[in-house]
Amino acid sequence: MSKAFTKENDSDDDEDVGLPALPQGKRNYMTPEGYARLRSEFMTLLDEERPKIVEIVSWAAKNGDRSENGDYLYGKKRLREIDRRLRFLTKRLDIAEVADPSLHHGNDQIYFGATVTYANARGEERTITIKGIDESDSLAGEVSWVSPIARALLKAREGDEVQLMTPGGIEKLEIIEVNYPKPKQ
pLDDT at residue 25 above 80? Predict the structure, then answer.
């Protein structure tokens, strides 16, 4: 069957880009930096990259037979990818709730945006920062606020012990330190 008669599924934009879906009925919390980064990506795709691809596709379409025209075929594919990402970013930015973690500077209770140092029962220390779903990077020690570790830590204070449910059973974590970024002047 020709691809011309198939329809791409637009409803699963979250899954298409490999990011987790938001929990039903929850807000999409983001730091100001994360929001700015997504907004910048949106504007770059919309104002720079998409017009370039449209121009290439338009030029390639004028060259005749589209079935064997690589510029046309790959341009259309890239255009679909850009449009899918734009739809995803539009949805996420529309429901974003920007939460500035610097408002909690000096606080020892864990909220969104906190950088937390904790130790497990074996004495191994780890430091993580709780961020939004769309901005967390596990390689940089950032976890999403909906992750099990973040849910276990939220609302606890320095010195508290919390329980984290892991595949190996319940693990006790002691919160050693809680930090927030300094407010911008």
Answer: no
